[in-house]
């Protein structure tokens, strides 16, 4: 291949993050490109399967009060096969919550499909968002393991919270394995529809939404939701200027 | 209806109805477990398969799994059933049908003639009695030829969709991925973009860009932006260069409601696309996508197993003479197909069932990062599907779709199948490839700087 052609392909690579102009060994991937792909996939799988380091997360959340709960999914394999189990609390867990005084806003951190995302970003986003919610009563932070988005409904109801902010690890991609999502649900209770939530997606450090941006949007949505007494599609248009969208539900849901 | 029971290993098994027999006879997969339909044990599964093997094919005409009155897919299946075409196998049980399909009596011409006589439920039923090798052996015998600017399904060939998606629909980025794919001889079935932003202006911009690129090099293929069917109807009215109408479809009316689509909408779009007369080699203008689990995920499964519902989706497809039908087999996630074994099985079932019903069946050989699968599983499935004579497979740059965040096959993988198995691209496309100097007369990729340089003239 001539240098001119090589240069042109190199220029094309700048036009897209897609894996183009990889070269070939026969019809196969060259060794280097093959290993780079394997690395990206390994990182994504580790993000799905590694357990959350709860002690480290709790330390990052200090001085906030933390309550740990688990979903009805006993392990990761059950969690992946049975989304319904990840959406409800294990037997007896609600009792840890329903003795608390009621609050305006409860924060829930769910491992979802990327413990890496939760470990890296959840505490920072929680601190930044809570700092912008002055004047509201904020409940303890609940860390839910083997959990999906809808578990926030049961937790919020048990805590008597008016609104739940749930942070969750999004399904890892090959390029970004630690992307965090945030779901806001007004009047949380079991049976809440996904269309009754607002969602922020792509909170991460590789060109995604920053902690401060995410916190700003969470605070805006929280105050708007409490004032208008709703979240979901009814809140979308007015917050559109902030770039907040009701993203299609990812399967961390 | 009839009694569904059998005695096996000293134990008596009883099934409430045909739907339960079908579900429990299905090879294990997570989606049926999630729906609570899966056999309680391996022995119960075999018992259900034994009951199924002894059922007459006619049973499916007599006991409809989803009522005629409430489901337009059932009405389509029943009303379009061709009793004359069915006659040669109408006396058989499901088990006898399996034996016959595997026999030399069931040759290519016979199977083509039979297709209109088969209901999706009959095809699903027989697949449940087949091992993977059986599915391949029968699918391989079936020829389905469709055409638009290229002709797909001919012996000794395998088509490919070039999928140049970009997370921001960036035109330069999409052109870059498209040129990369063309340099690997990918794109003879379609160059198809999943738009990140699904609206009419975006789709029209992307269609114009693809059509300009195609016209510039006079590439004998077709383009498609995978937008909702109602958008395509509107785009046709506005005069944009639309080759194929795309739509995701499922096997129940309720699941299609979830996609916002009805049979009458598809009919309108089909007629609109035909009226454009843009095809030169043929007039198959529809591109459908399906996948096991879609009905369950929209809570529209009526207690029917996901593989049977997938076959019913093919009844929707075949009513509109598609150019290609794609089962997006591993996209939906591990709660429906848990691991490589389940994905491989489902991919083979889908291509078998689609082809037996007369469809130009291809596959997106793919998985998500939370499934227990990796590229090695995809290597196995693509090799099996090429042997089963799938109409086409999908290729994305480096197997990594950066917009949809899942892994499919790479352009390299399409080249591997063609080189290692001696398969070629569609004839019109192959002639173009050799004319450009991209492949040799025998179909091998050439390291030809001149060809690459010519392609790159279109680079942004």
UniProtKB/TrEMBL annotation, chain A:
EC number: 4.3.1.7
Gene Ontology molecular function, alphabetical: cobalamin binding; ethanolamine ammonia-lyase activity
Reaction equations catalysed: ethanolamine = acetaldehyde + NH4(+)
Cofactor binding note from Swiss-Prot or TrEMBL: Binds between the large and small subunits.
The UniProt record lists the keyword Amino-acid biosynthesis: no
Record keywords, A-Z: Bacterial microcompartment, Cobalamin, Cobalt, Lyase
Main location: other
Pfam families documented for this protein: EutC (PF05985)
Residues reported in the UniProt entry to bind adenosylcob(III)alamin: 149, 170, 199
Localisation: Bacterial microcompartment
GO terms of biological process kind: amino acid metabolic process; ethanolamine catabolic process
The protein's required cofactors: adenosylcob(III)alamin
InterPro entries membership: EutC, EutC_C, EutC_N
Keyword Cell inner membrane assigned: no
GO cellular component entries: ethanolamine ammonia-lyase complex; ethanolamine degradation polyhedral organelle
The organism's place on the tree of life at top rank: Bacteria
Membership in a protein family: Belongs to the EutC family.
Quaternary assembly: The basic unit is a heterodimer which dimerizes to form tetramers. The heterotetramers trimerize; 6 large subunits form a core ring with 6 small subunits projecting outwards.
Cited HAMAP family: EutC (MF_00601)
Chain's role: Catalyzes the deamination of various vicinal amino-alcohols to oxo compounds. Allows this organism to utilize ethanolamine as the sole source of nitrogen and carbon in the presence of external vitamin B12.
Protein's name in the database: Ethanolamine ammonia-lyase small subunit
Organism: Celeribacter halophilus
From TrEMBL, chain B:
Keyword Lyase: yes
Cofactors, names only: adenosylcob(III)alamin
Location in the cell: Bacterial microcompartment
Role: Catalyzes the deamination of various vicinal amino-alcohols to oxo compounds. Allows this organism to utilize ethanolamine as the sole source of nitrogen and carbon in the presence of vitamin B12.
GO biological process: amino acid metabolic process; ethanolamine catabolic process
Protein name per the record: Ethanolamine ammonia-lyase large subunit
EC number: 4.3.1.7
Naturally occurring in which organism (per UniProt): Celeribacter halophilus
Gene that encodes the chain: eutB
Domain of life: Bacteria
